[in-house]
Each structure stands twice: as C-alpha cells, then as structure tokens.
C-alpha cells in the first residue's frame, strides 16, 4: 500500500515530489512577477502550482504540420466565390500597345537646325476594314506647333520603312522647353485620315551633342489630341516664278471649312498674309483683302514679289489666314508653309515652281 500512497503537504495540495509522474509529461512555467511581488509570494511556488489533471495533455496537443493531409471539410468555400474583375481604368500593356517607332534626332548648333529622321515602325494597329494601314507621319515641335511637317504615305503595311528627314529651324535656347511630337496617321482618301497613335519626347531629356537613335512605344491618341489636331480647313493657291523677270507670283484662290479659334463664334472675317523668309529673316510680305462673314472665302487675288534668282532655291513661303478683329490683335486661323525642307504636297508644289513647271491651283491643309 505504500507504493499507492500519495504524499500531501500541510496545505492539502500535492507536493512537488507527489507529481513526479506528471512532471515527466509537462512543464510548468510560472508567470513573471513584477518588482512589487512580496518575498513570501516568491517563496511559495507550490501554492500556485497548476492543477495537474488529465486536461494538461490537451495543452500539449501537436500543431498541424504542412505535411499533414488537408481536411477539405474545414475550408470555407465562401472565400473563393468572388470572381476577380480587372480594373478597366488600368489597361494592360497589350491593350495600350499601338506598335513601336524608330527615329533619330540630331541638332546642328552652327545652323540652329533640328533634324528628325523617321526610320521605321513595327506592329502598327490595323484598320478594322482591311486589316492593314496606309501610314504617314506628321512631325511637329510643341508647344508652339507652328511648323507641322507631313511625310509620304506608304501603302498597305503594318511595318513601314519611312526613311524620311524633317528639318526645323530652332534656336538652341528653345530646346529645353520644346517637345518633339510624331503623329502616325492612316491615309484615307475619303476623309482627313484616322490617327494610329503618337510619340512624344521632351528634347531636354535627350543628349543632342551627337545623333541619337531611339525606339519608342506608340501611344494611343487622346480626346485632347484629337481636338488639337482637328481639321481647321484648307487653302487653295498657285505658285509661279518667272526667272527672266525675277518675279514670284502667288495667286490666293480660296479657302474652305475655316473655324474660329474660340468655340461658339459664328462669324469670320478672313484674309491671307503671304510672307517670304530667307535665312530666317522675313524679307517681303503682302496680304489679300478681307472677306466678311464667311467660312469659305473666295479671293482670286495675285500677290506679286520681286525675288532674285539666287534666293529662289532657299526661299520659304508662308501663307497665314487671319481673322480680322475689329478690336485687338488679329487671330490666326491656320497656315501653310513651303520651304526646301517641306514634305508631301508642299514639297511637290514648291519643287514644281522652282524648276519652272506649270503649277495650277492646289489645295493644302491648314495647320497651326
């Protein structure tokens, strides 16, 4: 019977020696006492000993392991009922991608000329109708955008090789505040063309000490871009140069679809100012009469300039349509610029005049 006896202390609770068998199964760590505990409390841990009952084994239950089999009955399936939806305001790269454009930039400090060469484009977005595009480029310098140059149209290709150069007269001081913009447009003979995309690059971010070749993603045209690049009308005129008399004649015929710069204004009083520019200086200018209250004026006026033969190959001819304001400065409605660096219809028209080829009246798109 001695072996079956339990030893109790004077308090009636099991003494540490009576819990020998339990001590092999569990350990008790008394809670940390603060500095305010009395010495008597520290001296009698046996009085605070836990109840060494069979429930102790539950506290020692083994934690689940990652190697244990999954109990699918304990999974809350409601957590997985929601369908993930892509946020439409954050489109993916593929949704934004409109192809890539390869071009180069070079600046000649001595002549103050910025040369932009459009080399090629890849993976352009096809038109919905025929699965391809007839692309051409519009190159301009922002924010002034006073000299937009148009390139040649390439037929039925999503990977056009342009190999075209566009030259802008630009003082070195304007480089830090200017941005190069290249618009890619699908040529449509029944409309003004559909925009494919755009590339913009701040010139202050480019080291122009040497020629730079760049690949850049083509971005989608925004509603603001479309509003800025909207159709602002056309101007018809003819050019002729009589070499023997050293006389240049510009016949301003008519204009169509003019728009006021301020939305909502109905009346227009347009006239055309023709300026001859040589070596960056305005040397001669003349203007037509003003036509009142019309968006489609007819002038049929010949403006004649005496111009030496030595100037003719380097001359710049600028035609600007103004709205005649009765109060304040006159407003520019659009312009056409022809010079040795022009492209498209402007290049052809000027070239025909220089070689003495007959040049009847031709339509030209107005730009800002």
From TrEMBL:
GO biological process: calcium-ion regulated exocytosis
SUPFAM superfamilies registered for this protein in UniProt: C2 domain (Calcium/lipid-binding domain, CaLB) (SSF49562)
GO MF term set: calcium ion binding; calcium-dependent phospholipid binding; clathrin binding; phosphatidylserine binding; SNARE binding
InterPro entries: C2_dom, C2_domain_sf
Pfam families linked to this entry: C2
Gene Ontology CC terms, in alphabetical order: exocytic vesicle; plasma membrane
Designated name of the protein: Synaptotagmin-1 isoform X2
Organism: Octopus sinensis (East Asian common octopus)
